[in-house]
C-alpha cells in the first residue's frame, strides 16, 4: 500500500522515472546506463607555460571542477558529464618562467567528439572578453544561457581578434585566415612554435609599452575604442654583412699552408682573415668590399671556411676540433691543390653556430608551392620561423639545433661582397628529420638588406618546394 501511495504522489512530477519494486531502475525495470562523460583538459600558457596554476571549470549545469597545471602548462579533468558542457575555464596563480603569475586567464570548453582539449592563453581571454564582456562577472554567473550565448558569439569575436592582430602587425600561425586560439596546436615555451611565438611577441609589446595585461583586456573590451592592441616590437635590422662579421670574429687570424708548386716542390701560402670577414692571400685582397666574392662556412664531419670569388679564386681552410688548422687549399684560379697545415688557429671556443644562425631570427608567413623540381608537401600559407637558438621550422618541417649540429649546416654571406650571390644563405640539414625519414634540407635565402627572399626544402627523394614572402 505504501509503495502504491508513493507512486501516486510522484506521478505528477516524475512520470518519466516510473515506479517499480526495483528502486533506481528504468520504466521497464532495467538499470539505465551511466551518464556519458568526457575528459576535459588543455594547455595554459602566456608563451611560457603556466606551471602550478589553479584551473577552475564552471559548467552549464552549474557544476564545478578543478585541476592544477603541470610544469608544461597541461591540465586534465578525467570525467566531466557530457551533458554539463560547455564549461567556462579559468586559470589563476602559478608561475611562468619561474616568476609568479599575477594575471587571470579565461577560456571556453565546448562539447565536441572525443576528449575536449582547449587552450587557455591571453588570446582565448581577449576573444572571450570581446564575446561576453566582463569575464569575472560572466564566470561567476549561473545558468546555461550565459554559456550557450558565448558559444554562439565566439566565432565573430575570434574573427575580430584575428583582424586586430593582423592590423597591429602580428604574424598569425598558418593558415592565418582560420587561426583559432582556443583549438590551435600550442607547444608552450617552444620558440619554433608559431602560436608560442605570437604569444611571446604580444607579451614583449605589452612590456615595451609598460601596460599590464589586465589593462589591455579592459581596453580591448571598451566599446568604440577600436584596435588598441600594442604594436609588436620591431627589432633593429642587422647591419649588412653581419654574417661575415660573425664568421670573421671566430676565424680572424693568420694561417699558413704548404702547397704544391707544380714542379715537385712546395710554396708557403699565407691567408689572413679580418674580423669583418674580408681576407687576403699572400698579401693581395682575396675577398673584400667590391671584390665580387663570398665567405662560406660549412660543417658536417669537418668544420671548414671557404673564401671564393667568381673569377676562380678559392681558399678553403679545414679545422680540428680544438680550432687548430688541419689542412687547406688555395688557388687564384682553377683547381685548388691540397695543402698541408703549417700554422694558425681559429677561436672556436667563442664560436657558436646556433648564435650565428640565430642572428637572422625571424617569424613570418610564407606562401609555399612547387619548386623547379620535385613534389611539394607544403602549399599555400605556411608559418616560417628561425628561432634565436638557430632552429628552423617551415610548417611541419623542422630542423632543430641538435639535428643540424649532428647533420650539417652551411652559412654563406655575399652581402658585404657583392657578386655571384648577394645576400645571405643558410642551409640546415639532418639525416633523420625529413618528411619520409630521409635527409631534409631547409634553406633560407635573404637579400642584401637581410629580408627573406625565399625558403626552399628538399630531401633525397622527390620531395621539394619553394616558399616566398608576400609580394
Task: Explain what the structure shows.
With 471 residues, the protein is α+β, with helices and mostly antiparallel strands. It folds into four domains: 1-33, no CATH class; 38-221, no CATH class; 242-350; 353-468, no CATH class. Helices cover 21% and strands 33% of the residues. The protein is built from nine helices and 27 strands. It has helices spanning 2-11, 122-132, 135-140, 145-168, 194-209, 213-221, 242-251, 353-358, 401-407; strands spanning 37-44, 54-59, 64-68, 74-81, 87-92, 95-96, 99-100, 105-109, 116-120, 253-260, 266-273, 279-281, 284-287, 293-299, 303-309, 314-319, 325-331, 338-343, 362-369, 380-386, 392-394, 397-399, 408-413, 424-430, 440-446, 452-459, 464-468. It has an 18-stranded antiparallel sheet. A four-stranded antiparallel sheet has the order 3-2-5-8. Helix 2 packs parallel to helix 6 (213-221). The radius of gyration is 31 Å and the shape is elongated. The termini are far apart.
